[in-house]
């Protein structure tokens, strides 16, 4: 607490006046640009790595950067995430929703272990709110990742996007640069796009392309920011070699990419100590009651309304 209280004192004598002036501008002319969902990990500082300022974003943080699917929204149960979507996109007419995952995510490390039925048992969930949270709201992410492991990590996954009929293909870490838990983190980040789009109060704007959902992924070890490219069907590091190609994607992505590239030129050393995790073979899925979700098509299936790609890792025509 001493560090926090001393920090408040430094703030009073340095940046307080400037922030108060910014607060006044936002109060008189609020123009938030995005609702930003990310993890509560203390290393994730979204306003720093997006170079945003007071009034630019509504930031929502939780364990695992999860957005519960609308099927979980009931009279007797609710959470802050759909409320944030309504406040941002309905009340304030924000046009961009961003979900940002990251490497070495402690919630994703735990989620990976929850494939073990004993680890995910009801008794263990009763004594661990974190396990209960992940079992309830991240089980679809784990199910998709388990399916990916079964069919081959170089194979594609198919996700629903802004509407059920609009789907996108994703190859997860085709260069095999990341740990197994980090691959799960990327799958989980993309699953939240589908979860966000499940809310009926966003349906009209999503269908009319007035509202857009994006996925970012932050590598804690290098400080690189990855943008999910629907053209390339994978997460692409935003840097000088990729920025022009990424800017050729739909125009709604350009503000995000420019921000991330500017950040990349001035990134501090974030540290590169890698957490070594162990994992086990695939456990029984029966411990997750809704693993057989029908919200996405069978993995490996084709769609007549889109051209499925050739796997960059295996050359497999789908």
Automatic annotation (TrEMBL):
EC number, UniProt record: 4.2.1.1
Keywords assigned by UniProt, alphabetized: Lyase, Metal-binding, Zinc
Bias type Polar residues, positions: 299-318
UniProt-annotated binding residues for Zn(2+): 39, 41, 102, 105
Protein name (Swiss-Prot/TrEMBL): Carbonic anhydrase
An example Gene Ontology molecular-function term: zinc ion binding
InterPro entries, sorted: Carbonic_anhydrase (IPR001765), Carbonic_anhydrase_sf (IPR036874)
Family: Belongs to the beta-class carbonic anhydrase family.
Cofactor note (record): Binds 1 zinc ion per subunit.
Function according to Swiss-Prot or TrEMBL: Reversible hydration of carbon dioxide.
UniProt catalytic activity: hydrogencarbonate + H(+) = CO2 + H2O
């Amino acid at each position: 607490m001493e560090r926090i209280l001393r920090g408040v004192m430094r703030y009073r004598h340095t940046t307080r006046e400037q922030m108060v002036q910014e607060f006044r501008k936002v109060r008189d002319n609020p123009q938030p640009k995005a609702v930003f969902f990310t993890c509560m990990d203390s290393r994730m500082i979204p306003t720093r790595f997006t170079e945003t300022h007071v009034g630019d974003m509504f930031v929502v943080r939780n364990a695992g950067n999860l957005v519960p699917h609308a099927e979980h929204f009931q009279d007797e149960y609710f959470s802050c995430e759909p409320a944030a979507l309504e406040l941002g996109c309905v009340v304030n007419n924000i046009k961009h929703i961003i979900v940002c995952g990251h490497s070495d995510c402690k919630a994703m490390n735990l989620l990976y272990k929850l494939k073990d039925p004993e680890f995910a048992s009801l008794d263990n969930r009763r004594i661990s709110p974190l396990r209960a949270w992940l079992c309830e709201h991240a089980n679809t992410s784990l199910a998709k990742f388990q399916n990916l492991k079964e069919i081959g990590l170089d194979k594609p996954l198919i996700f629903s996007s802004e509407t059920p009929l609009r789907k996108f293909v994703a190859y997860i870490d085709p260069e095999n640069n990341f740990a197994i838990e980090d691959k799960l983190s990327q799958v989980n980040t993309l699953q939240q796009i589908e979860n966000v789009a499940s809310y009926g109060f966003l349906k009209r704007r999503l269908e009319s392309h007035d509202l857009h959902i994006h996925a970012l992924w932050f590598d804690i070890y290098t400080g690189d920011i990855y943008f999910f490219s629907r053209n390339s069907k994978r997460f692409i590091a935003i840097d000088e070699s990729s920025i022009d190609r990424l800017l050729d994607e739909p125009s709604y992505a350009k503000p995000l990419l420019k921000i991330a590239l500017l950040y990349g030129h001035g990134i501090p050393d974030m540290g590169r100590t890698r957490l070594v995790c162990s994992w086990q073979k695939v456990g029984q899925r029966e411990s997750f009651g809704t693993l057989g979700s029908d919200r996405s098509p069978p993995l490996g299936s084709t769609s007549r309304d889109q051209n499925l790609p050739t796997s960059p890792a295996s050359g497999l025509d789908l």
